[in-house]
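Can you make up a protein sequence with its backbone structure tokens?

===
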Amino acid sequence: QVQLVESGGGLVKPGGSLRLSCAAPGSTLDYYNVGWFRQAPGKEREAVSCIRSGGESTYFADSVKGRFTISRDNARNTVYLQMHNLNVEDTAVYYCNQGSWADYRRDRPGKYWGQGTQVIVSS
């Protein structure tokens, strides 16, 4: 059982930035691949980005490529999703996930989820 806790969401204007955090209290997150998914109202869940346990590989959806970065600080047991140049289409609940790299490369999540953090991009 892996508990994941997201934070950092909020309201931001178009063109702004936010940094989301995914922490794993009680677990050693550096053993795990971590993915970010999002779901906007009325839309299907979408894979956003993922990072391998060692940080050596990352993946980004085309919709966020060049604007989002993902990183991990294993000393803090935290994975970050840095989001720049946000637009209204980025409005969604963002979820942290723990799963296998093979699943992530197929845009499939693992079975462990955080509770989500809301990102609203609006002027």
